[in-house]
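Problem 12. The chain below contains 209 residues. Write out its predicted structure in token notation.
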Amino acid sequence: MLWDMDGTLVDTEPYWIDVEYELAEEYGGTWSREHALELVGNDLLSSGRYIREHMGIDLSPEEIVERLLDGVVARVSQQVPWCPGAREMLIALREADVPMALVTMSYARFVAPILEQLPPGTFDAIVTGDQVTHGKPHPEPYLTAAATLGVAPDACVAVEDSTTGTTSAVSAGCQVLVIPNHVTVAPGPARHFRDSLVGLTVADLAALA
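Solution.
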């Protein structure tokens, strides 16, 4: 099992959007919800470049990413907004000894406070945006995760909430369980849709593979 994080396991998109608006206000930029939703699933440096261009602020993409991370990490450290059924599903898969990897375009320092809320060893591998050369929608993150687990990508099920992430997983050869959250995802080959993780069983996920 290969898991996206933002919008899939934890509903942190509102945190990111709040911090983006704060950044725009601080530096006299302009921002909109439409702009914010364009960033869902993207790697952080791509988001930083988009923000610099469309918000119109005089910070480098790298500086923008660090400012975003500062704000979102502070919020997550106070409260982790788990998606319905997410923690329960992770625990059930762990108890069934299903190998799992976290595949997120967020950076390691953002992932850490979320992992602290899970049993040790929940994930056998963790791939973050600061560990890969090409972020989603490129297949590298999912190929890296599958290789780390020692499993062929076509034997893996990825769980995603965005078009960017779904494209990455499908391109890597995975079957994808899509649970749309803040953005819509179009139907397509290897894409299986559910409204929520609630009520999902280990057997349901195994059937997708």
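Discussion. Residues 3 and 143 are 13 Å apart (CA to CA). Students who got a different answer should revisit the alignment rule from Section 12.3.
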